[in-house]
Amino acid sequence: MIKSNTIQGPDGYLDKTPVFQFILLSCLFPLWGCAASLNDILITQFKSVFELSNFASALVQSAFYGGYFLIAIPASLVIKKSSYKVAIMIGLSLYILGCTAFFPASHMATYTMFLAAIFAIAVGLSFLETAANTYSSMLGPKSHAILRLNISQTFYPVGAIAGILLGKYLIFQDGASLESQMAVMSVDQIHAFRLEMLEHTLKPYKYIIFILVGVFTLFAMTQYPKCKVARQSGHKAPSIGKTLKYLSTNNRFKKGIVAQFLYVGMQVAVWSFTIRLALEMADINERAASNYMVYSFVCFFIGKFVANLLMTRFSAEKVLIAYSIIGMAFLTYVSLGHDFSAVYVAVGVSILFGPCWATIYAGTLDTVDNEYTETAGAVIVMAIVGAAVVPAIQGLVADVVGMQLSFLVNFICFGYVGYYFFGEMKNKKANQVQPKLAEQTN
Predict the structure, then answer these.
(1) Which residues contact 407 (CB under 8 A, 6 or more apart)?
(2) Which residue in 17, 27, 46, 56 has the most C-beta neighbors within 10 A?
(3) Which CATH number fits domain 19-227+243-435: 1.10.10.60, 1.25.40.10, 3.30.70.20, 1.20.1250.20?
(4) For this UniProt entry, which segments traverse the membrane (predicted)?
């Protein structure tokens, strides 16, 4: 058993960060990054194989992130009654079961069955994210909570890149695009071809299962601190109803939830349709188009490092306001550009996504009292349901006005994110001024 030698404060935070435990916890982030980026591959594959509209193909994200929305609160209840580690172990087990569901789905060859398998994976990931995001912020002194979560989130694009590469080489094939190939086939040939393409979709999940079993074993062997808020004798933890009532009156928390909802929705929407944008703006196949998603996740990775450096010199709010303004300019070009450079700018937008999730998450969690932390963290994770809504809206808009103009949906989302951080900056300045005024009065 690998042990942790740390002292826990009454607020649940530790006096120092247990390095091995923190690194192992951070290794969970690429695991859901891999699953999420594989969805971008599946959207493109299913659109051609099942002959779907952009809106219908975006239901992959709706099934995936809808699972987060439904399971986050139950996951928080598990954390309250047991521990973050138990929730993580449950999440890994359910993730493994979800991956195995791709085997019957590939043989049944129905879009609904694939959506069910994707939903099953999301159930496991909801446990993982609900536990790991809050846990990462608490594995050390509270003063560095945002930095720790940003560091853990830096591991995410590693998994995202791995997912795209697995999809590129194991799901997508050489030759012309799927639509071009099926255009010259007979009905019987198309049926056989579709079955063959669907068989390819389960290949990445075979490798993921082996990795998950290894990570599960390591977690089972590692001792983790509880990081639970100390309660006075006879003082029970607040109920879900009481917690939700408290959160509903917290205006800063509610604004953070909206910002997280729109940010996650925007990020997933851009990534969902970058491959489709490349296919529409150039005569290339799916495998070649998937390169632009690899570039996107490399940019995402770089953006996180740059943001972490910037936030050591400037406030997180100022960095995110600047990122939002630049992001809006980029998305305007993506929507109105007249050549393939629009695809490269869509790739570049990912640089600006880097610090958003972790900064919004940790900042929003910091607005609530310690006794409500577990449930508040789950509610923030529930905001991931934005990724089930915004891509579907963009897909619907794309069916009406075209793929390129549909990226204006994300322009609106980035605008709100910038507005949110501007409000947070004003709020912090006001909080800094009040103590000074009190001192002058005294």
Answers:
(1) 270, 273, 277, 331, 334, 335, 346, 394
(2) 46
(3) 1.20.1250.20
(4) 20-38, 58-79, 86-105, 111-133, 154-172, 204-222, 257-277, 289-307, 319-336, 342-363, 375-397, 403-422
CB atoms within 10 A of CB 293: 27
Q: Which two tokens stand for residue 100?
A: 């195995």
- Contact (CB, 8 A) for 293 and 164: yes
pLDDT confidence bin for 266, thresholds 50/70/90: very high
What sign does the dihedral 344-345-351-354 (CA atoms) show? negative
3-class SS of residue 14: strand
Q: Where are the domains of the chain?
A: 19-227+243-435
Q: Count of CB atoms within 10 A of residue 126's CB?
A: 30
Q: Is 159 exposed, middle or buried (0-12, 13-18, 19+ CB in 10 A)?
A: buried
Inter-CA distances, 293 with 236, 286, 296, Å? 48, 11, 5
| Banded model confidence at residue 23, pLDDT cuts 50, 70, 90 | very high
Residue with tokens 């980029």: 330
Residue 327, Cβ neighbours under 10 Å: how many?
Answer: 27
Q: Determine the distance from the C-alpha atom of residue 207 to the mean position of all C-alpha atoms in its chain, rounded to a whole number.
A: 21
Q: What's the mean pLDDT when you consider all of the chain?
A: 86
Identify the pLDDT of residue 420. 94
Contact yes or no for 124/92 (Cβ under 8 A): yes
Q: pTM (2 decimals)? A: 0.77
Mapped onto helix, strand or coil, the DSSP state of residue 1 is coil
Higher pLDDT, 390 or 106: 390
Nearest alpha carbon to residue 75 among 93, 88, 61, 58: 88
3-state SS, 305-331, equals HHHHHHCCCCCHHHHHHHHHHHHHHHH
Q: Name the band, by pLDDT with cuts 50, 70 and 90, for residue 231.
A: low
Confidence of residue 370 (pLDDT cuts 50, 70, 90): confident
Residue 78 tokens, joined: 């598990």
The closest alpha carbon to 390, from 276, 258, 278, 255, belongs to: 258
Place of tokens 């001192």: 439
Residues 6+ apart with CB under 8 A from 43: 57, 58, 60, 61, 272, 275, 276
Q: Name beta bridge partners: 2.
A: 222
Question: Is residue 339 classed as helix, strand or coil in its secondary structure?
Answer: coil
Whether the CB-CB separation of 419 and 327 falls below 8 Å is answered with no
Other CB atoms closer than 10 Å to residue 135's CB: what's the count? 27
